[in-house]
Amino acid sequence: MSVFILAALLVLQDAEIQPGPEATATQEAAPQAGEPQAGADTDEPMADSPPTDAASLIARIEGRFASHADTVAEMAGRKARERYLSELLLPVISRADLDDGAQGEILAALSGQIHEIEANNSQWALDQIDPDSFLTVWTDNPRLGAELLRMAQRAPDSQARLVAALEPVALAGAYDGAAYAAMADALAVSQNQPQPYGTATECVDGLTQVWPLADPDTIDAARTALGLARFDANAIAGQACETTEAEQP
Questions:
Q1: In the chain, where does DSSP find H-type helix?
Q2: Does residue 83 sit within a domain?
Q3: Does the residue 138 lie in any domain?
Q4: Domain tally, the chain
Q5: Do 69 and 148 reside in the same domain of the chain?
Q6: What is the pLDDT of residues 116-158, one digit of tens each?
Q7: Are the CB atoms for 183 and 159 separated by under 8 Å?
Q8: N or C, which terminus of the chain has less Cβ within 10 Å?
């Protein structure tokens, strides 16, 4: 029996063990903003009942492997490169016996390489996120989708593309609706445009006001589609404030 098949059988055996109370509580906890929602880690699309016959399951596994294996491998390599450099650097610069000025010299010598690796990885991740197909990536492999998103968020001027790519994911219930609404509204504010979901505010004459809405007549429908409560301007407006910059409540 191959090592790969043996490992798969061990994983299956572990999965059959009933979780204890602590594990159950962890599974039932609310997901963090921006993470795949409950059920997404099954690697199955949200509204799709998984097939039970061998032929369909084999085809599904082979199809997803062909579609995403190269990206998964590339992601692992890029993350490992970042992690390895940190593992080399941190123990050195944290030493208490370094010569005077040595820490600064080390950081100055390696900072360019660190920034270059991170910038290249961030841009690569952003390039993998196609707004027209990111929902498929996310539902096929939520972990890969979340890792691409986290890495791409570091890229400059990535916000518009990420908002467009995450919209169908959020509407499908696979991404935290409140987090997506705040992201979309922040993008609108940064472009000095009216916001679609009503999460952004501004300070006017010492009082909090809701940033202008894109379409007040349809905002409740837009929020409901993300699983959010109906818009209530009175709940967030009128509070004392000291800044004139738009901010997220």
A1: 3-15, 21-28, 54-93, 102-128, 134-140, 142-152, 159-171, 177-190, 219-225
A2: yes
A3: yes
A4: 2
A5: yes
A6: 999 999 999 999 999 999 999 999 999 999 999 999 999 999 9
A7: yes
A8: N
Indicate whether 243 and 180 sit together in one domain. yes
- Render pLDDT for 166-208 as a digit per residue (tens, 0 to 9): 999 999 999 999 999 999 999 999 999 999 999 999 998 888 9
77-91 per-residue burial string, b: 16 or more CB within 10 A, e: under 16: ebeeeeeeeeeebee
Structure tokens at 66: 């062909």
Contacts of 207 (CB under 8 A, 6+ apart): 237, 238, 239, 240, 241
Per-residue pLDDT tens digits for 46-73: 446 788 999 999 999 999 999 999 999 9
Based on the fold, state whether residues 142 and 222 are members of the same structural domain.
Answer: no
Q: What secondary structure letter does DSSP report for 89?
A: H
User: Residue 158: how many CB atoms within 10 A of its CB?
Assistant: 19
In a domain, 25, yes or no: no
- Cβ pair 96, 102 in contact under 8 A: no
The two tokens of residue 95 are: 């030493």
Cα→Cα distances 115→112, 197, 241, Å: 5, 35, 37
Distances (CA, A) of 155 to 13, 114, 191, 217: 41, 14, 18, 35
